[in-house]
Automatic annotation (TrEMBL):
Keywords assigned by UniProt, alphabetized: Membrane, Transmembrane, Transmembrane helix
Region spans: Disordered: 100-119
Gene Ontology MF terms in the entry: sodium:proton antiporter activity
Domain of life: Bacteria
Biased composition (Basic and acidic residues): 101-111
Protein name: Cation:proton antiporter
Transmembrane annotation, as ranges: 6-25, 37-57, 63-82
Pfam families for the chain: PhaG_MnhG_YufB
Lineage: Bacteria, Pseudomonadati, Spirochaetota, Spirochaetia, Spirochaetales
Amino acid sequence: MTEIIGALLVLAGALFLFLAALGLIRMPDVYNRMQAGTKATTLGSMLIFIGFSLYNPGHWQKYLLLILFIFLTNPLSSHALARAAHFSGIPALLEKYGSPETRRDDLREAGDPEQGGVR
């Protein structure tokens, strides 16, 4: 019974990874692509490793460490990439279509050395 549940979790994780790949192709800008890729790959990888641990219970400690590593590093790396893209001047979709309230950029002003900010 645990093998069936493990196989279903692996299948669900593979589906999330497939949806992440579609999100990377279909999303319009770098920030949306990062969001789609990070959220779906984090959950998809976790489901796959939980499924592996149910299918092969002798190695559940290794899978738990992998889950923790992915859970901690995936959002951090996505944040670092988004911050680098933002400071590089890559425009977000909101700058083209957003209202004036959403176009205000406090982070750029805070990081601008000419305005007293530190990068």
